[in-house]
Amino acid sequence: MYKWVIIGGGIQGCTVASYLLHSKKADTPSLKVIDPHEDPLHRWKTLTRRVGMKYLRSTSVHHLDPDPHSLRKFSKKEEYAQPFLGSYDRPRLDLFNDYHEGLFQRYEWNDFWMQATVTDLEKKTDGWEINTDGRSISAERVVLAIGVNNRPHLPEWADLSDKRMGHLFSSDEVKISGSLVIVGGGISAAHLANTYAMDGEKEVTLLKRHPFRIKDFDSDPGWLGPKYMNDFHKVTCYEKRREMIKAARHRGSITNGLSVKLKRHEREGRLKIITDQIEEAAYVKELIHLSLKENDGIKAQTVLLATGADQCVPGMEWLEGVIHSCALRTAPCGFPVVDAHLEWGPGLYVAGALAELEIGPSARNIAGARRAAERIAAI
Fold this sequence. Notes:
The chain folds into two domains: 2-150 and 310-377, FAD/NAD(P)-binding domain, CATH 3.50.50.60; 165-215 and 250-305, FAD/NAD(P)-binding domain (3-Layer(bba) Sandwich). It contains eleven helices and 20 strands. The protein has helices at 11-22, 42-51, 70-77, 93-106, 187-199, 226-234, 238-248, 256-267, 316-325, 356-359, 366-377, and strands at residues 2-7, 31-35, 84-85, 90-91, 113-115, 118-124, 127-132, 136-144, 165-167, 180-183, 204-208, 213-214, 253-254, 272-275, 278-284, 287-292, 298-300, 302-305, 343-345, 348-350. The strands form five sheets. Strands 1, 2, 5, 6, 7, 8, 19 and 20 form an eight-stranded mixed sheet that branches. Strands 9-18-10-11-14 form a five-stranded parallel sheet, covered by helices on one side. It is globular, with a radius of gyration of 21 Å. Helices cover 30% and strands 23% of the residues. The mean pLDDT is 96. Helix 1 runs parallel beside helix 11 (366-377) and helix 5 (187-199) packs parallel to helix 8 (256-267). The chain is α/β, with parallel strands linked by helices. This is FAD-dependent urate hydroxylase HpyO/Asp monooxygenase CreE-like FAD/NAD(P)-binding domain-containing protein. Pfam families: NAD_binding_9.
């Protein structure tokens, strides 16, 4: 029986593992991380590569290592050129990834990584049994660190069976050919538009429903500390907490730096930016015809959706049965009601989106991962 099993090997799960190992609450033989992919942070690396991200939105102190200054120390030791960007010290993506490759090697990550898909979770007298598509393992404690970026949100008019249309979050990467329309107004869409406009080889259009929402971060930094979180925790009604989270999140926002780049591409003729709504799509011969609410329709050889993930509770395809069988408490929105240590049931903990009714609006990002990992490692 393992002491800890973490379900999910993305940013959230890997941060929890790092904190448990650093604090000596776990070691290599007593820990298991289960993820459908072969390597840690696979989904993170795939999506950031797809959009062409160069620098993160978060700051230099937000990463997976408990020492907040370790990324900066690493950048100096390895002599990275321009390792951080702007007044917020946003780290280079390759620096961020390289640092964590070293971190994983230092903790002998391969020894406790398990590539599998979890299908069920059962409470036992002495812990939990985790069932996967290949085998079952037992653990004293389980951490659910499941994300939603494998569940793309599709507009009603979208048809991904047509190979000329794809979604950023789909498992299959769409082959970009000819004129390209990118649909979305958030930071992923902005990165995509910047990447393909810089390439200069295609006719690129960014089609968004709303004007650019310029925000430095996806929620105000005050949500990372007592400035806002003290009042958040005074609220005992989980419906009100959900309302506070929705109001605090800057969904569909982009940084000022990306906005400047996109507007420059537009001025120089490398990018067309349209603010409108798509009413329907027609798939005619080699082109996709998009009908717009206010403007003339547009045609493209490829349509790439950057419309985010479905608004759902992560892992519900198998978690629903666990909730009922173990009488786990949920809020009206369906998300877990947990204690201050993020414990949902005896020996069952959550991180990421599943922890947001306790961690607050930052729960899904890297800073939120650190806060969740701190609480879990402190038990």
